[in-house]
Amino acid sequence: MLNVENLSISFGTDEGLITPVQGVSFSVEAGKTLGLVGESGSGKSITTKALMRLLPGNARLSPETRITYRAKNGKEIQVEKIKPHSRALRSLRGGEIGMIFQEPMASFSPVYSVGNQMVEAIRLHRGCGKREARELAVEMLQKVGISNAAVRIDQYPHEMSGGMRQRAMIALALSAGPALLIADEPTTALDVTIQAQVLDLMRELQRDLGMAMIFITHDLGVIAQIADEVAVMYLGTIVERGATRDVIRDPKHPYTQGLLKAIPSLETLHDRLSPVPGDIPSPTERPSGCPFHTRCPDAINNICNIKTPVELTPAPGRAVRCWLHDEAQSGRSAA
Amino acid sequence: MTDATAGKLSAQEEKERQKRLKYYSASQWTLIWWRFKRHRAAMVASIVLGLMALMGIFAEFVAPYGPTTRDTKYIDGAPQIPMFCDQNGCSIQPFIHGVSTKRDPVTLRAISIPDPEKRVYVTFFAKGEETRVLGFIPTNRHLFGLSDPQAKLHLWGTDSLGRDVFSRTMYATRTSLSIGVIGVLISFVMALLIGGIAGYAGGMTDNVIQRITEVVRVVPIIPLYMGLAAAMPKEWSTTQVYFAMTLILGFFGWPTLARRIRSQLLSIRNEDYVVAARLAGARPGRIIGQHMLPSFTSFIIVDLVISFPYMILAETALSFVGLGLRPPTVSWGVLLQQAQSVRVIEQTPWLFIPALFVVVAVLAFTVIGDGLRDAADPYSEAR
Amino acid sequence: MLRFTIERLVGMAVTMLLVSMMVFIIMELPPGDYADRYAFRKYSGTGVSVTEADIQAIRVELGLDKPMVLRYFDWIGNIVLRGDFGQAFAFETSVVKVIGDKVWLTLAILFTTLIITYVVSIPIGIYAAVKRGSAADYGLTIFSYLGLALPNFLLALILLYFANRWFGADIGGLFSAEYKDAPWSLAKAWDLIKHLWLPAVVLAWSAVAYQIQTMRATMSDELNRLSVTAARARGVPEGKLLIKYPARLAINPIVSTIGFDVNRIFSELPIVAAVLGLTELGELLLKAYLDLDMYVAGAILLLLTFMIVFMNFLSDILLAWLDPRIKLGA
User: Fold this and answer.
1) pTM above 0.90, yes or no
2) In this complex, do A156 and C325 lie within 8 Å of one another by their Cβ atoms?
3) Structural domain total, chain C
4) C211: domain CATH number?
5) Cβ–Cβ below 8 Å for A98 and C233
């Protein structure tokens, strides 16, 4: 239902043009969940913002970018070509694609009740009256597990607990009836116990409503629980893609391998954690060649630091950008 | 060949690394200075203000005449702009036309008429009145003057008593800027004390101080200043009035800064490093001075800079309505006292030149304050 | 909400009490006492010679022989209980008579100024924040710098000059000559409105400059908030979005500084009044100070401060009503 090809985003800044997202391609099937994994600064949030044309004014999409979205009525929309301030864009935002954010407190306006903001969204996208919208809102709040929804609807965000706010945020995004939900680290700011509840809730809602989902996180553990497919991002490019189970069982890219090793587990409790060494470089100092070569334990000298890797297909349904999987390159280095 | 490129690359990388090392190891103040230098408007404003301060400090030398010297031959005279050419040809040295006095046949008032046939040349470091630069260096040289010591050059014209507006403005700059500086210093010390006590002690002390601050903040400031200024005995000397004015301005300038210091102190009072210092047995004065203040010194400096304009504008306004400094003291406000009516704009607009100084000084302080604020913000990214 | 209101009212009363003490001290500051000045005023030039005994008699008559604390209580008691602000010697009448309807004129100037300030600065501030970095934004920044730097009396003179050239001579003051001492009528009110804009524009000038900066800054902050992006991601139309989400919050700092604006306006009022020849409290205050007519000056200072404190109170209430988070904290 969503197909992204060659998405590149640049920002004009005082220090010149920076390109935090380069040549990203992926697709999301109806009813399925795509997990987008990466450290902070890897460009995952910006990528999803581009899907809804939420980028700031100094951002530019490259001319090769193609974002194709199949709407609920079956029509295909070229998202990158929609005019700003158009009706088409407004119905895409919220009505077709919903979005929830990391911090529920900050994503509500503090001066309106939760109900006010829900009714607004429902009326915008479902074209119903005030009373009907309110009923729908109460129903939605019940659905996300908020007890006493008829009272809670008139509360302000600051009167709710963190977990409840996140539930309300989900209800708000879903109340407009989107076919695709983008969840930007929705559980990061929550306590671990509540995290699990919210994840369960989202899985449940997805099944009930039959929506597709893009789930952004830096936590491969969360991905394992919720995503059908996973795309690992590093410095604005997708370094590895594939079915979640395959990627986790058999990671091909050294970065994915590093991320997996960094997850603490019961078996390795007594060992030291092994984080991915080094820091993520800033987008203004993008390394030449493979962006990961500065931190890669297996980097091939004079190849990885010079040539940008192309996407390879090591197995059916898998994709990886790494010279280690290109026989010609790694063979030459060994010889 | 590959080795050569690798070597070159690493040399460049090394340079880059050195640059970064310098950046990361620079002190807070160096960083602020680097960022401030990039703020072009603030740099220009600093230079302008610096020049203005120099004019004020060396007023005796820069001004060709004393602040009260009268030129009865040139009353309410228009600015004399040095020229290089007239109908008799050109000269390398700038000159003005001499002035002769005639009587207006109708009003019988003396009026001055430039004589286009008489050239008087402008010279630098000309001989003129005896003065003491900075109050103790005797000299009779001035930055510029006329070749003929009998004639007088009034670059910005004269007032109704024939006093040179340029010279008076130079002396006024000294008075007005110095009142600003002393006023700001007094209010700074008071703010530091009051805000420091309130913010460090907290609780009841803080409550009482907050109430008092509130009272001072709520009374309209110029009418309050006026009330205090009006109480100055008429027989006080100009020096007494000058010091009283700085005291008045300084004495009520503290609330904003005191509030800032207080809230900053309150917010870091329970930071771990402050608690640690307290547990280590440091005295309150040391804790405030050594541990708490440095964390927001840069903000205090910004606040000080932006409180200058208020001092200058207050002094100008008070003197303007006759409740501040009194003649023969000259300040920008005192000079503008002569420019109170529309008639002045029509007839002797050059009397407004001191107003330009007020505007430029206030603008300069504001721009520098903004530049400093941006520079002092540790989160503004700049290298 | 009720508790909040009462708390603020009590706070207001305490502040006014402290202010009245400060004002009284200022009234007592000028050298010599009221009786000296009263006698000097009354008899100078009349040829009557005044002895120390005469002055002492005046002192006793006016209750000036009592200690300062008692005099303070007399003064504030008369104001609170009887609305009597004491004697104005310049006009040989009570302060209340001297002040008279000048309070209303002052309020008229104040509210005209405030309306101009907010009507101009709020939309422009929003515009500058939305168009941040554009030529218009830079232009507005330069304008507001100038607004802060140009002394108001200078602006008053400049405007007066141009008003004289374009609209004829009779533009200063608050009334045309024929209405100056006329009783109130519709025609007089209209005349006032015609004269009000000049002082209001002068007084609004720096407030506009300041509030454009405030509005631009807070609006820029608000625009970057996640809640705005979230609303945009829900498809809220841009125009409605700007007003409902960032602007609605960005206006709070403006509301909370209404008292501050009133303070600034009153602060500038005496100077502007002197230049424009306005016949209201500011001008009277300046005159009273120059004449050392301290009962009049004290009364005006107290009244102006009371208006500021009251506007502070109103802005607190308005803010609590605008921002649901405040009630919780109170």
Assistant:
1) no
2) yes
3) 1
4) 1.10.3720.10
5) yes
